[in-house]
Design a protein that fits this description.
Layout lengths: L2 H20 L4 H10 L4 H11 L1 H10 L1 H4 L3 H24 L2 H20 L1 H15 L5 H16 L4 H12 L4 H26 L4 H21 L5 H20 L1
Length: 250
């Protein structure tokens, strides 16, 4: 790894850490960078998952005020996310690498669609919550578990999916739900990362650089992320997402 590549991975980790805290989908920054530097897709994915864990921790700490009073949600939903993350990680390791290369472009397209229509989705969520006073239930747990499976397998836009699910089913402020989202996504990355560290091939140098960058990015995202122009952020993520699709299919 050259010094230039190391710097690029570090900066990508910072950007991903900040984006994950504010929106979710930071994987669409770091994953294409690792692919561009020649890492195999599965190795890039597992190294990226491990590297993003510190960013989730720093982001959750930054949102600690919004987490006040949500201990029961963290415990119940966190269990579902943890089980889902373990399941997704095991699925990734059991399926052949060729399956990952075939499936992930579809996941990235879905993630990009969610990002492009994020504003409309947020408006729909807000209107639905206002009109129908939704509440959590078994379907919410199942949906959060399923999102955890997706997050353990790949994870781009996992945060957006979590916000959509909880926004539709929990009567609460979206900033508080965003804080909860950071904890749940962090748990998924943590348990999946533990599985990968034990049994998968990890590019530890790249994972460490992403970890350092994402931790700094998580702090910055929690403090300043709300000031970023949403349209510019979405456009940038779409560009790197398309680049990842091209790289995987090439």
């Amino acid at each position: 790894m050259s010094a230039g590549q190391a710097l690029a991975i570090l900066v990508a980790g910072m950007a991903a850490g900040a984006i994950n805290v504010v929106v979710g989908s930071g994987t669409l920054i770091t994953f294409p960078v690792l692919l561009g530097f020649g890492y195999a897709p599965v190795t890039a994915n597992v190294s990226n998952t491990i590297g993003l864990v510190p960013g989730s921790v720093s982001g959750a700490v930054g949102y600690r005020r919004e987490l006040a009073g949500q201990r029961r949600r963290v415990r119940v939903f966190g269990t579902a996310s943890t089980l889902g993350g373990i399941t997704g990680a095991l699925v990734l390791l059991v399926l052949p690498p060729g399956a990952f290369k075939a499936i992930v472009p579809v996941f990235i397209v879905i993630a990009l669609v969610l990002i492009i229509f994020q504003k409309r989705l947020a408006a729909f969520v807000e209107a639905r919550r206002t009109e129908h006073a939704p509440h959590g239930g078994p379907l919410t747990l199942v949906a959060i578990y399923a999102t955890g499976v997706y997050g353990g397998y790949f994870g781009a836009a996992q945060g957006i999916m979590l916000l959509a699910i909880m926004g539709l089913t929990l009567p609460d402020d979206l900033q508080r739900l965003n804080a909860l989202k950071n904890v749940l996504a962090g748990l998924v990355n943590l348990v999946a990362g533990i599985v990968f560290a034990l049994v998968a091939h990890v590019a530890w140098g790249a994972a460490l650089l992403i970890a350092v960058g994402s931790m700094v990015g998580g702090v910055l995202g929690a403090r300043y992320g709300r000031r970023l122009p949403p349209a510019a952020l979405r456009a940038f993520i779409v560009v790197v997402g398309v680049a990842a699709i091209v790289r995987l299919l090439a």
